[in-house]
Amino acid sequence: MSNSNDIDRLIEIMARLPGLGPRSARRAVLTMIRKRALLLGPLAETMQTVARTARECLTCGNIGTSETCAICRDERRATGELCVVEDVSDLWAMERAGVFKGRYHVIGGTLSALDGIGPEELSLPRLKDRIEAEGITEVILALNATVEGLTTAHYIADMLEDSVRLSSLAQGVPIGGELDYLDEGTIGAALRARKPL
Amino acid sequence: MSNSNDIDRLIEIMARLPGLGPRSARRAVLTMIRKRALLLGPLAETMQTVARTARECLTCGNIGTSETCAICRDERRATGELCVVEDVSDLWAMERAGVFKGRYHVIGGTLSALDGIGPEELSLPRLKDRIEAEGITEVILALNATVEGLTTAHYIADMLEDSVRLSSLAQGVPIGGELDYLDEGTIGAALRARKPL
Ligand SMILES: [Zn+2]
Ligand SMILES: [Zn+2]
């Protein structure tokens, strides 16, 4: 395509990223090459570092650069509160909102009979263990407002029974909406107006 | 945001690429980290290579990995024909169409009084030099079908007078359309139906 194997290969790999196709990958690569000092060099270097250091937090499932992520290590975080999210991107969205001061638990998806995703495929047994081991008294469900998210929330409510105060994000999360698309204000409002399950 | 400086920096640089914003950059980085062996590692490595080797062809302006690009080096290419394009991405679009067997001249934009882009800012004097030095007998203008593209085409026609056979892509290029968006078939049809200026 560009008649250079390395450039073609770079375009081909970039095109596999979510949100990019062949055309936007070509544009991105041309821009990177033109702004080599500003984009291509720093990107290559940072990717190499991240490829070497990125890892999943063994406690909460967040992605960071150590065995225990910065949030789990942060002693100013309220230890009795746990916010349950589907995905790391949702955890980051909560953090951008800056309204939750406890810790997180990334379950890694939603229950789905169709896709064969049961409690064991998500980290739900581990959630139960953590609640006991860490003396958690309040769990906030920040799952996406989708059918699968609601099903999963009900399952968690049944699993935890009355062992903790349980609530879920409420006001402000539109039906069918995904957390990662919401602005900080909406997430903040939803957290403050959370309703007990 | 992710509470890791390197990951945040990677997201921040990715978000500067055309077609990506902060949100798609976050998604892309999470995907890269999850598919480290398939995406992050190979990307970092290929970027490093491209950052070291990519350069503009001194003859035509194409981006490749040598002083003279593979197209300019290719002796099977018709030496008397030159296709003039605005941008490297347009050259690549022509090559994907696979219908032009000559060589290229990337002028690097279009004339624009408003933006202070005159013939010297584009490689138009150099186009004239090449035509003499390389004994070019046919020039095909494959500029975008925009007002600026048409203005530039007229300027080139005046500059070259009757020194070469001059034509421009015609049928199939929609008014206001940009070359890089067209499918191969449309580009092929436009080349075959090119009309003399
Ligand atoms: Zn953690
Ligand atoms: Zn060349």
Description:
Chains A, B: May play a role in DNA repair. It seems to be involved in an RecBC-independent recombinational process of DNA repair. It may act with RecF and RecO. The structure is a homodimer of 197-residue chains. With 197 residues, chain A is of the alpha/beta class. Chain A folds into 2 domains: 49 residues, Helicase, Ruva Protein, domain 3 (Orthogonal Bundle), CATH 1.10.8.420; 106 residues, 3-Layer(aba) Sandwich (Dna Topoisomerase Vi A Subunit, Chain: A, domain 2), CATH 3.40.1360.10. Chain A is 45% helix and 12% strand. Chain A has 8 helices and 7 strands, in the order H-H-H-E-E-H-E-H-E-H-E-H-E-H-E. In chain A, the strands form 2 sheets. A 5-stranded mixed sheet of chain A has the order 4-3-5-6-7. Chain A has a two-stranded antiparallel sheet with strand order 1-2. In chain A, strand 5, helix 7 and strand 6 form a beta-alpha-beta unit. In chain A, helix 1 packs across helix 2 and helix 5 crosses helix 8. The longest helix of chain A has 18 residues. Chain A is elongated, with a radius of gyration of 20 Å. The relative contact order of chain A is 0.10. The mean pLDDT of chain A is 87. The site of one zinc ion has 8 residues of chain B, from helix 4.
What's the level 1 CATH class of the largest domain in chain A? Alpha Beta
- Give the % helix of chain A: 40-55%
Q: Might you state the CATH topology name of the largest domain in chain A?
A: Dna Topoisomerase Vi A Subunit, Chain: A, domain 2
Strand order of the largest sheet of chain A: 4-3-5-6-7
Distance linking N and C termini of chain A: 57 Å
Q: Rounded to an integer, what's the Rg of chain A over CA atoms?
A: 20 Å
Structural class of chain A: alpha/beta
Low-confidence parts of chain A: none
Residue fraction in strands of chain A = 5-15%
Number of helices of chain A: 8
Of all chain pairs, the largest interface belongs to: A-B, 55 and 56 residues
| Count of distinct strands of chain A | 7
Overall pLDDT of chain A = 87
Task: Please give the domain count of chain A.
Answer: 2
Q: So, CATH architecture of the largest domain in chain A?
A: 3-Layer(aba) Sandwich
What quaternary form is this? Answer: homodimer
For the sheet with most strands of chain A, the description reads:
5 strands, mixed
Shape of chain A: elongated
Ligands (ions, cofactors included):
zinc ion
